[in-house]
C-alpha cells in the first residue's frame, strides 16, 4: 500500500492529544455545573441545558477518541488502511478526510444502509 502511514500516525496522535484536552475541559465544566449553587428554576434549567449539551459533546468526542486509539492500534499491527469488512485498501482520499476510518467507502455505505 502506498499510503504514508507515518503521516497519518502523526495526524492521529495530534488529534488524540487535542481530544484528550477537550474531554478533560468538558469533564471539568460538567463537574463545575454540578457544584453550582442554583438559586431558582431558571438557573437550574440553564445549568441543566448546558450540562446536557456538554455531555452530548463529551460522548461524541469520547467516541472519536476511541476510534483514533483503534486506528493507532491498527498501525502498530500493520493493518491500518485496510477495510475491516472487505480487506481491500481504503482510499487515501478517504483517510485524509477521516484518518481513523476502518471501512472503505463502499463497505461504509453498506453498513449505513443496514443501520437504517
Automatic annotation (TrEMBL):
<protein>
    <submittedName>
        <fullName>Transcriptional regulator, TraR/DksA family protein</fullName>
    </submittedName>
</protein>
<dbReference type="Pfam" id="PF01258">
    <property type="entry name" value="zf-dskA_traR"/>
</dbReference>
<dbReference type="InterPro" id="IPR020458">
    <property type="entry name" value="Znf_DskA_TraR_CS"/>
</dbReference>
<feature type="domain" description="Zinc finger DksA/TraR C4-type">
    <location>
        <begin position="78"/>
        <end position="113"/>
    </location>
</feature>
<dbReference type="InterPro" id="IPR000962">
    <property type="entry name" value="Znf_DskA_TraR"/>
</dbReference>
<keyword id="KW-0863">Zinc-finger</keyword>
<feature type="zinc finger region" description="dksA C4-type">
    <location>
        <begin position="83"/>
        <end position="107"/>
    </location>
</feature>
<dbReference type="InterPro" id="IPR037187">
    <property type="entry name" value="DnaK_N"/>
</dbReference>
<keyword id="KW-0862">Zinc</keyword>
<dbReference type="GO" id="GO:0008270">
    <property type="term" value="F:zinc ion binding"/>
</dbReference>
<keyword id="KW-0479">Metal-binding</keyword>
